[in-house]
Amino acid sequence: DIQLTQSPSFLSASVGDRVTITCRASQGVSSFLAWYQQKPGKAPKLLIYAASTLQSGVPSRFSGGGSGTEFTLTISSLQPEDFATYSCQQLNTYPYTFGQGTKLEIK
Amino acid sequence: EVQLLESGGGLVQPGESLRLSCAASGFTFSNYAMNWVRQAPGKGLEWVSAISGSGDSIYHADSVKGRFTISRDNSENTLHLHMNSLRGEDTAVYYCAKRNEFWSGSYGGYYFGMDVWGQGTTVTVSS
């Protein structure tokens, strides 16, 4: 199975900050990598697919990059509604694994 | 409106069975692979099972293989998860999710993402 490791697991930041979350795969997943945002008590929301393509309706302050085994999710200027947990998922090979999540908290 | 609505969760004892359902609406259900994803209390997301649009291809995580079975009824636009021999570690919120196929001009191919999720149904396994 492909393991995904996110770093950091917790991130404290302020409104207006630029933050980057990294997702590393134990083996190559090409660009079959998606990012999700989840708020407490809610279902995940797809932000990015194909490693770098923004899902419709997602603000342009979100961006994704990488391919193969290393990927990033960047939020260019944090807004109050961005404080949530972010998870990566590989959809290259079954089982479709998720990273452990990164909780983004307000400093 | 595209929507997924799970049902069937509840409190069961270890070793018992449960069947979850997910009613789909607003899209051509049979055209899409569907998934179950779960989240244990305070933990991250765990992919559980997937089924192709036709139902011909099925995949399960090792943690549930032999105990859980995914199925679908395309005539009823419904996805199911049959869970047997439930354990405490199966306690979680279970989400159904639609896997979409997106054309990427940048990469010249189709890529996947789970773009529609239900609200989740809670399964608690405890004596």
Care to describe what's here?
The complex is a heterodimer of chains A (107) and B (127). With 107 residues, chain A is mainly beta. Chain A has strands at residues 4-7, 10-13, 19-25, 33-38, 45-49, 53-54, 62-67, 70-75, 85-90, 102-106. Chain A is globular. The termini of chain A are far apart. Chain B is mainly β. Chain B contains no helices and eleven strands. Chain B has strands spanning 3-7, 10-12, 18-25, 33-39, 45-51, 58-60, 68-73, 78-83, 92-104, 109-117, 121-125. In chain B, strands 2, 4, 5, 6, 9, 10 and 11 form a seven-stranded mixed beta sheet that branches. In chain B, strands 1-3-8-7 form a four-stranded antiparallel beta sheet, with no helix packed on it. Chain B is globular, with a radius of gyration of 15 Å. The relative contact order of chain B is 0.29.
Sequence-ordered SSE layout with sheet pairings:
The complex is a heterodimer of chains A (107) and B (127).
Chain A: E1 4-7, E2 10-13, E3 19-25, E4 33-38, E5 45-49, E6 53-54, E7 62-67, E8 70-75, E9 85-90, E10 102-106
Parallel strand pairs in A: 2-10
Antiparallel strand pairs in A: 1-3, 3-8, 4-5, 4-9, 5-6, 7-8, 9-10
Chain B: E1 3-7, E2 10-12, E3 18-25, E4 33-39, E5 45-51, E6 58-60, E7 68-73, E8 78-83, E9 92-104, E10 109-117, E11 121-125
Parallel strand pairs in B: 2-11
Antiparallel strand pairs in B: 1-3, 3-8, 4-5, 4-9, 5-6, 7-8, 9-10, 9-11
